[in-house]
Design brief:
Layout (H helix, E strand, L loop, with lengths): L1 H33 L4 H8 L4 H13 L7 H10 L4 H13 L2 H11 L1 H24 L25 H37 L2 H11 L3 H9 L6 H13 L4 H13 L2 H7 L5 H29 L1
Length: 302
Amino acid sequence: MESKINEIIGFFIYDSIKIFVMLFVFISILGFLRSFVPREKVEYYLKNKGIKTYFFASFFGAITPFCSCSSIPLFIGFIKNKLPLGISFAFLITSPLINEYLVVLMLGFFGYKITLLYILNGIFLGILCGIILDKLNLSKYVVQDINSDKFQTCEGERFIGLYSRIRYGVSESLEIINKIWIWVIVSVFIGALIHGYVPREKIEKIISYAGILDVPIATILGVPLYGSCASILPIAYVLFTKGLPLGTTLSFMMSTSALSLPEAIVLRRVIKTELILIFFSIVTIGIIFIGYVFNYLQRMLY
């Protein structure tokens, strides 16, 4: 019993320190690099159409930090400025799925191969869903009298010299860590308990009951929950090491952040219920597909 408690404490301390050091260093670097990308240029490029624009919108979502610049207010700003609907959704889908702190944590837990594939699949999901939503011609479901004063949007930063950019990167890093640290601690603690007390055989038994439907079940179970991928990742990784298939793990993690009831409530103020249901349905199908792809590729990746 004492050795088990020591193992849990060691797991908790090691993973907590590793996560916070990686978050601070890499988010500071990425924040510094992003300071060279003004928001005005981003909106200018997003006003065009074509596959390159979908890619750019999805990529912009991937490099936008979810905490310091909420994705929904930016999405609302895009809609208000008459950006194409599908391109706006490509950003909205990718933004919560991929961000710098998630990438940092995934590199530490899963390694570079799975992290790279996750990023590529997340961007692909944003592009594909954006194109589909554009082709369906759903502009009639957008609320016409959007009052942008109700929403807080991000103002462009102004930088003078290298020091201000470095300070921006460090400030952004501390801001993000300040907003998610409690969730990271709780998640690592829960992960440590699972690591110490939940046998691998029990996880495998639960999976056997779900059978081939494990990915859709995991995706649907994630929707009522609200959280970022980064907050659920430590738990997801421990479940993965206990035998939960990789694709099932990632599908659950993706659905908690890309699809949530609070998000639907906020979106209802700018788009109608029919479009929200279509949006959720398309993204859910995409996440399930990605889950099965990762389950198929798991043996090659490990």
